[in-house]
Amino acid sequence: MEVLTIPTDTYKLGFIGAGKMAESIARGVVQSGVLPASRIRTSHSNPARRKVFESFGVQLLPRNHDVVEDSDVVIFSVKPQVVKDVVLQLKPLLSKKKLLVSVAAGIKLKDLQEWAGNNRFIRVMPNTPAAVGEAASVMSLGAAATEEDGDLIAKLFGSVGKIWKADDKLFDAITGLSGSGPAYIYLAIEALADGGVAAGLPRELALGLASQTVLGAATMASKTGKHPGQLKDDVTSPGGTTISGIHELEKGGFRGVLMNAVVAAARRSRELSS
Known about the structure:
Helix 4 links the parallel strand 4 and strand 5 (99-102). With 274 residues, the chain is α/β, with parallel strands linked by helices. It has an eight-stranded mixed beta sheet, with helices on both faces. It has two domains: 13-170, NAD(P)-binding Rossmann-like Domain (Rossmann fold, 3-Layer(aba) Sandwich); 179-273, ProC C-terminal domain-like fold. The chain is elongated. Helices cover 53% and strands 12% of the residues. This is Pyrroline-5-carboxylate reductase. NADPH binds at residue 64.
């Protein structure tokens, strides 16, 4: 079988769908120097969306068909409910020479490959912090996607955060954790700030402290290599303030509630994708 390789120094990247996620990825790719804007293209009927992409040098083409024809790597970043129709419309152009990628939540790799008639497909699950270069993304390689294809996509999505590789069957659980997870953390930040206000802090100071505290704690967990339980113990003095707060969290079932949230979201993802 012929091995199709994409020239890493000259390839063109196309986005089918020009929404916020496509914008975040495109901006990250350009800002990190992975690809110049001149080699990225998309299409959109909304003048406002066109203007956003044009503002940082992305080429706007008349139709999705033109984007596919003029791209080596094609990222489908449309809403999950229209992915099938869009892929089927473009199917005649989706040759094995093109590496296909989907970031549509809940759409299985086997379905994408079947609709496209092309197994050179990679499914990626990013999350919304891609907008600030801190995405947690996971990818799964289709049957005909090569290790080189995986490396190329890891580099693209690595420009907007961190990326892991996992089996497609794990994606519902991934959706429940990293896909929906930012919303759980926003709730936590809001609640911490409300607690600060209840304890007497001005709202703006409380919100700033809450946001930075979550960012700092996540950075510690990510960069020190220490288990979060150890990091928690490091802050918790005998008979001190932190253990009093943790005692209240444990009485409220804090850990169990977070675990249940991930499991519930994963279950819902499974229902929606079946």
